[in-house]
Specification:
By secondary structure, the protein is of the alpha/beta class. The chain is built from six helices and six strands, in the order βαβαβαβαββαα. It starts with 5 loop residues before the first strand and ends with a helix. The structure holds ligand FNR. The site of ligand FNR has 16 residues, from helix 1.
Length: 188
């Protein structure tokens, strides 16, 4: 029996050009194979949330509609976030708030999601994990339950622009496999 190729979309919670989170997401995109196609969606053009910009349920500026379409079309969502002041970045929270509309009926409702945090420091952004999980749970997303994927000393692990650290590669691949398993479970 031929197995269906799964499509995951990833978002990075950092917009800066030299972002480690975005670089890590690029390396995750490069982990695509015959069974799993991974793409990245940039949050660069997503405006700050303003309810005036959604006069009717589901309406939104074009970049937000594109974000919702990308998440809606994907089998699973990968969130890669830096830690800012022990929480997620405002960029990520803003994007999740936009994507969460209309409430409880959005593209995030029922969407299986995987959380990855990064930091140049030793804790790997672990303190942001709970916050991202809580926000995704509020949207009714199915967050994969597994040991946290944190990438500490992320700059060292991306030296030369590629994720050469084998334990980290293995950890992320295990997370992607768990995401695929949860997508299948959600559909069974
Ligand atoms: C940070 N940084 C940071 N790092 C961390 O491990 N825990 C933290 O709580 C914070 N807080 C924080 C707040 C703000 C406002 C900034 C700008 C930065 C450092 C952060 O991890 C570092 O700048 C990363 O390189 C940001 O991620 P990207 O842009 O490389 O993906």
């Amino acid at each position: 029996m031929t197995q269906k190729t799964l499509h995951f979309v990833g978002i990075s919670g950092s917009l800066r050009s030299g972002s480690f989170s975005a670089a890590l997401l690029s390396e995750i995109v490069a982990m695509s194979d015959d069974r799993t196609q991974i793409t990245a969606f940039s949050l660069r053009d997503v405006p700050l949330y303003n309810q005036d910009l959604e006069p009717t349920p589901g309406s939104a500026p074009a970049p937000v509609l594109a974000l919702r379409e990308a998440i809606g079309a994907a089998d699973g969502l990968i969130v890669v976030s830096p830690e800012y002041n022990w929480g997620m970045s405002g960029v990520l929270k803003n994007a999740l708030d936009w994507a969460s509309r209309p409430a409880y009926k959005s593209v995030l409702a029922g969407k299986t999601s995987l959380i990855i945090t990064t930091s140049p420091f030793p804790l790997g952004g672990v303190r942001a994990q709970t916050q991202v999980r809580q926000t995704l749970s509020a949207t009714l997303s199915r967050v994969v339950n597994r040991p946290e994927i944190v990438v500490a000393h992320v700059g060292d692990k991306l030296a030369g622009g590629h994720l050469t650290d084998e334990p980290t590669r293995g950890h992320i691949k295990a997370g992607l496999a768990d995401l695929a398993t949860e997508v299948a479970r959600a559909r069974s």
